[in-house]
Amino acid sequence: MPSVSERFEQCRSAQRCALIPFLTAGDPDLETTAAALKALDRHGADLIELGMPYSDPLADGPVIQAAATRALRKGTRLAAVLEMVQNLQLRTPLILFTYYNPIYHHGISNFLKAVATAGIKGLVIPDLPLEEAEPVLEETAALGVELTLLIAPTTSPERMQAIARASQGFIYLVSTTGVTGMRQEMASRVQDLIHTLRQITPKPIGVGFGISNPEQAHQVKVWGADAAIVGSAFVKRLSDPSQGLEAVASFCQALRTALDTP
Description:
Number of helices: 12
Structural class: alpha/beta
Strand content: 5-15%
Order of helices and strands: HEHEHHEHHEHEEHEHEHEHH
CATH topology: TIM Barrel
Distance between the termini: 28 Å
CATH class: Alpha Beta
Shape: globular
Mean pLDDT: 93
């Protein structure tokens, strides 16, 4: 399986805007999560974010918060999630989305070694500031797991430069202030932010927080993003007990078609 950086290189060579769906591990259960990951792998995802359920998800909106609550009530824990991932045979690199507290609780080295052993290729920690990221960055570099850092609309140009230098794999550009969630319109300022980042770094730029339909995914591609990251819209579809897997596969294919449209 390629690394996160290698997958972005492949997409750039093919002039392809990457699609990065997000799922919450264990919602509605780990068996369904595994089936959904396989569906995304088959239907056009280039990378996949897998969210570890957490009791205080400050960056997440109501859809993902509710999914995390359901997963925790089911008893979803890191060891079971990593075991599930390790047993899958995906072509698509997985990025683990987790808050810092579970990493601290397990110990940075122990956590990252377990993640790497399971085959996880990337890591996003939304509540880890740049100033505290160095210990994690040092460990990930040695283990082949890339830590991607986030840039918000309120980030100053000087701080953007520092984050871009440190971020591994790609730059995660948050499209709006606030939490994750589906929105009717994408903030037009995203285009300016992508342009600003292009002057700062050659690293790929993925846009997330708020993309909820194929039209918005296509828009961020037109604005120059290297990837569209879609979370709540997938999580909401998978919550349907009867049609969730079919809805996830269909939605993934629709996003892929939109991103492939010139």
